[in-house]
Amino acid sequence: MSQSVLPQESSPQAVTTPTNLLQALPAGGLDPNSFDWQEVWYPVHYLEDLDKSQLTRFTLLEQDIVLWWDKNAQTWRAFIDQCPHRLAPLSEGRINHEGWLECPYHGWAFSGTGKCESIPQQTQQTKAEVSPRACVKSLPTKVCQGLLFVYPGKAENADKTLVPIVEALEDEPDGWVCLNTFRDLPYDALTLMENVLDTSHIPYTHHRTVGNRANVSPVNLEITESGKWGFKGTWAEGPRKGTLGRQDTTFIAPGLMWHDLTSKQYGRTLTVVYATPIRKGECRLFARFPFKFSSKLPGIFLKLTPRWYSHLGQNRVLEDDQIFLHYQERYLEKLGGSANFTKAFYLPTKADLFVSEFRSWVKQYQAEPFKAESLSPPLPKEVLLDRYHSHTEKCASCKSALTNLQRLRVAVAVVTALIWGLLPLWMLIENRISLVTVVVATLVMISGALIWFGLGKLERQFYQGEDTPPRNLPEKNQV
Hints:
Distance between the termini: 49 Å
Oligomer: single chain
Helix content: 25-40%
Radius of gyration: 26 Å
Order of helices and strands: EEEEEEEEEEEHEHHEEEEEEHHHHHHH
Strand order of the largest sheet: 12-18-17-16-15-14-13
Number of strands: 18
Strand content: 15-25%
């Protein structure tokens, strides 16, 4: 990596207040030679997908946590997901009438700071709840740009450590139209970051989704700034053979990057990706697509598009490279990982500059989050293409849409069956057979069946991706 260092407080991730600006700590700790993944703010959920009446489980850096709404303090909380009594997962409990998190095993209850407020089994003379051993560890949380962030490191560092956000979205926040999605991916946060920093794969990997092989051209990337905080770079010509203009890229260590593109045709577009590490070989992707269009009409259409419908298409894009990235990181691990990437990868063109810079950053700052662990054996293809457990059940929009779709499908089947079943009875009552009635009833039956099968096909998209990626489907002009 180049050694020009951008001070952390002036990097594009800064979220500060006048009281902590001078005391701000860099993400990743103070050691200039290594990056500590614990000392970072991580997004764990979109606020719109969290239910204030329910507990939500998540795993951050191999640590199970439970997210819940503290109505007494009017804030989101993150606890280590273990009751200090007998280590039962608190995420299986509930929020009781006092607004405390109640353990499902014996009913111990905890207020928002993690303090034990109630042990139902003890006598009135006993005060076991005052012991520090009765407390649950509470992790710092913050809400920024519609995301809930959690800090897994030392609590005293949380307020001083900058939250990774996209500063451009803070400027005229009402001027952006933003699409977003998330998904739990079957590969490392490092693999995800490397992939999204690589713009040159889009025409091929995402052909017929968001790319086109016809748009491939030489990619001449440049690094403008770099340091422990991450790096900035630019692509002067830009995508689609230069027809869209220059594209600037920012990587904020360890898990945020965005591409920034302004064109005369479409206005300003950002592609923002967060990679939150769950465990070795698994991460949660948060993808945001903010648009500032040159005209109002495209923004109106985007706002009218149901969120769940956008997610179906975005899941399809993610599956374009989901299979081979799962295998790629296993091949890299066998060849020595990031420490040996220059021998494992052959990177002869400047199109790979951001990939090389990223892997150099990992190597220089010893930034492997799970150094002592190995990846699991490869997962079956049907597991890699699972949508329900990796997205749908955790997404408020998609989960609700799936429920409504299933109800609609049942209603169509019932109505169609009733019409067809009542036809003979009606003809018996009328004591005559009407050709028009038979034709109408038959059309209703056929239409109902087609709608039922169509809804079934749509329903399957909430559960599983397609085996064959769009890029590998036969071209229309092929015999």
